[in-house]
Amino acid sequence: MILLGKEIAQISSASDAKTDSTPMEASRYDRYAEFNPHYEIKMYKAHITMLDTFPVYMSFTRGLVHDSKELHQHIMTLKQIGANVDEYYLDAGYDSIHIHADIWYHLGAHPYIQFGPRAICHQEGSIRRIDHWVNKYWKNGGNVHDSLSSKLKFLFEHNRCEQVGRYIRNTNIANPDFHSYYSKRNACERIHDHIKDTVKFDVRGIRNLSKPLYAFVNFVVYQCLILTNLHRGAMPMNSFAKYY
């Protein structure tokens, strides 16, 4: 899966990433599966990261695991495969200052993460507070005259990711065009549905120990189909109507 994801990242010109989970339905008689009240089914979760609309990585969890707990692993995988990410789109379930900071630091990308209707700019993300903490660590090399990017990197590396994450989140809250950028995340549900229409992407009737393996195998099959279209230059890339 990671090897295919790396090749997809190298061949495609995609510069935006998206991560979201999708339910993998289990049998209603499955005594191991958890009932998710939101989806009203017994299920597991597939957490999928895409570059543009190309799936590059997936993790498999139980049905009630919070999405944000899986994200760090996905961020580090994108870094591992050398993905050239400029923007990262996530829904409100990932709205955390640590996630904002991780994406910015590890991928050099700007995270566009949906925030609540009552969200306000936090003072800990202001330039004044950033300078305050940089100056407080002057013995460790902090310099308030450095560029803003250098100061944010310095703070992250000295366990002050709160200022980094809040600064980036503040820029999103203050950005009047935020929602036009964030709308690119809508491709997640469409591609998840397409995966389920193309391969068997559920765990009904699968023995418990084999469920993760079946999920990964079917995900890899979909990756292979995408990668073949990328090599052929077939358009649209996610359509297999003329696949041969």
The low-confidence parts are: none
* Derived structural class: alpha/beta
So what's the CATH class of the domain at 2-93 and 186-232?
A: Alpha Beta
Tally of helical segments: 9
Question: Mean of the pLDDT scores?
Answer: 94
Strand content: 15-25%
CATH architecture verdict of the domain at 2-93 and 186-232: 2-Layer Sandwich
Fraction of residues in helix:
40-55%
Form type: globular
| N-to-C CA distance | 22 Å
Main β sheet profile = 6 strands, mixed
Instruction: Find the CATH topology of the domain at 2-93 and 186-232.
Output: Nucleotidyltransferase, domain 5
Please give the radius of gyration in angstroms: 20 Å
SSE pattern:
HEEEEHEHEHHHHHH
Q: Let me know the number of strands.
A: 6
Structural features, described:
The chain has 244 residues and is an alpha/beta fold. Strands 1, 2, 3, 4, 5 and 6 form a 6-stranded mixed beta sheet that branches. The protein has helices at 2-11, 68-80, 97-107, 127-136, 148-157, 161-174, 178-182, 187-198, 211-232, and strands at 16-25, 34-36, 41-51, 54-62, 87-90, 110-113. The chain starts with a helix and ends in a 12-residue tail after the last helix. It is 44% helix and 17% strand.
Provide a compact summary of the structure.
With 244 residues, the chain is of the alpha/beta class.
Main traits of this protein?
alpha/beta; single chain; globular; 244 residues; Nucleotidyltransferase, domain 5; 6-stranded mixed sheet; 44% helix
